[in-house]
Specification:
two-stranded antiparallel sheet, four-stranded mixed sheet, 60s Ribosomal Protein L30, Chain: A, 138 residues
Length: 138
């Protein structure tokens, strides 16, 4: 399964323009817990849309899987993969559990997580997730 994921969650506001909450550790550690909860809810909807667009939607259940995340940032600016992708992974994996794609997001189900840099994509910055079954034993 291959999903194209946003690098932010959009929080609607009543009186101002919608707020983009970028998923990275620098932002994450300073946010109010309520904002984080709202961002997770909105991000789950983005994951649901990505699943809808995915051609090979599988339900992995409790099968052991490998999750490979590839980052496609909007600019050539230096970026720390360990700053962005762990938060994207956490939000995405929680959403996949909630949406019934995975039974859990612990080490018994997600056996391996890989972070990669893809390329700069100014028109479509994103993270891509590839989930594949692995048959390695614990």
């Amino acid at each position: 399964m291959k999903l194209s994921l946003p690098l932010f969650a959009v929080l609607p506001r009543k009186t101002k323009a919608d707020k983009k909450v970028y998923l990275n550790l620098n932002v994450f550690k300073t946010l109010h817990h309520r904002t984080i909860a709202d961002a997770k809810i909105r991000y789950k909807e983005s994951v649901r849309e990505a699943l809808f667009l995915c051609e090979d939607r599988d339900r992995y259940g409790s099968d052991r899987v490998r999750a490979s995340y590839t980052l496609f940032p909007a600019s050539k600016r230096r970026i720390d993969l360990q700053n962005v992708l762990p938060v994207v992974a956490k939000f995405t994996e929680d959403a996949l559990v909630c949406l019934g794609v995975l039974d859990d997001d612990d080490s018994k189900v997600i056996a391996e997580v890989v972070y990669r840099f893809g390329a700069v994509d100014k028109s479509n910055p994103r993270a891509e997730l590839v989930i594949e079954r692995t048959f390695e034993e614990l």
